[in-house]
Amino acid sequence: MQQAVITGTGVFTPEQTITNAELVESFNAYADRFNAENADAIAAGEVTAKDHSSVEFILKASGIEQRHVMDKAGVLDPARMYPRLRQRSDDEPGIMAEIALDACNQALKMAGRTGEDVDLVICAASNMERAYPAVAIEIQKLLGAGGFAFDMNVACSSATFGIQAAADMIRTGSVRRALVVSPEITSGHLEWRDRDCHFIFGDVATATLIERREDDTQGFLIRSSRCATEFSNNIRNNNGFLRRTRPDGVTDRRDMQFMQEGRKVFKEVMPMVAHHVLEHLSETDVSPQDLRRLWLHQANKTMNDFLGRKVLGRDPEPGEQPNILQDYANTSSAGSIIAFAKHSNDFTPGDLGLICSFGAGYSVGSVVVERI
Ligand code: CO8
């Protein structure tokens, strides 16, 4: 059996940012406009008035301070409230492939490889730009990679599930080098007009290069991984290709964007993740005290504080559980990979760490890595 090693990572970060203050100002202008336009219906009790959002609430409830987005102007326009992206012809790279390529090239450069060295591309993300051809195959072509490519979606856990799939194929010898890439344009499917969730997400793309271990391979050995799922409607998006077949097949309906029962998610997912991680560690003879760092899913600071305490059995020391969500918000599957990419350079051979993601499905993915 071969061994699989993470030899490179890449993070594409969109240039445009939206601070909480900018977001709240735009949301409140939208809410005032909505309330004025619907004044009669609101007075008659037929429509619910929109309350203002608040910077203080967002920071306290989530820890998020800003988010990166592909189009700030469209999101902040109170008459629009979603991104405006350029129409592209079928002969140009799609926007997901374009940002994925940037992240992949960073990962390849870090490992001293080129696209031609790669024989598997997995595009692992929460939503795909189109049904087919697979975005991954487009990325494969743009990279000049060989072998094969496919898309997979496990929402926030897409990247860790992708890493497990790629590592398993490397171990059995069916591929030699794989890129797991997560272009997450969450701004396209976030409901920016809903104050309960308008602050949650941001855009980014991450890539992880995984290679078969040779004598001189350096990086992070994938010691083990575990994936788990359990069906829940508490995080859901009903958009899809059967939409026009429904009697009420409208496009601008609340459930065509991201929806969640945030409190329920919090209460149900936390025990599931803590149990999953502790079982994974125990089955593979790794003590939580052996882990130098946890690179957790980046949805909510309180969630990460809770998990850090559950896994380590004590309050994490500074740097043991780095967050990036204050700068990026929740970037779905990319979050734990951004944390890993930005906070792993100080590892020395023998150091162990845990990458862990969780979210819609529900889904949980955990990967134990060792610096070699
Ligand atoms: N400003 C002011 N007040 C607000 C706001 C706001 N923006 N929003 C809500 N409030 C009010 C509420 O109305 C409520 O008022 P009241 O007490 O009078 O009823 C009060 O504040 C408290 O509201 P909540 O109970 O909702 O607040 P919480 O403390 O629970 O925090 C969170 C809300 C931050 C959403 C929290 O519940 C949370 O983080 N939950 C878990 C979220 C999570 O991790 N979800 C995972 C989803 S990600 C995923 O799986 C990927 C999906 C695919 C990607 C999709 C991309 C778009």
UniProtKB/TrEMBL annotation:
Domain of life: Bacteria
Keyword set, alphabetical order: Acyltransferase, Transferase
Domain Beta-ketoacyl-[acyl-carrier-protein] synthase III C-terminal as annotated: residue spans: 281-370
Any one GO MF annotation of this record: 3-oxoacyl-[acyl-carrier-protein] synthase activity
Keyword Repeat attributed: no
Beta-ketoacyl-[acyl-carrier-protein] synthase III N-terminal domain segment(s): 150-220
NCBIfam families: PRK07515.1 (NF005703)
PANTHER family: 3-OXOACYL-[ACYL-CARRIER-PROTEIN] SYNTHASE 3 (PTHR34069), BETA-KETOACYL-[ACYL-CARRIER-PROTEIN] SYNTHASE III (PTHR34069:SF2)
Full protein name: 3-oxoacyl-ACP synthase
Organism: Thioclava indica
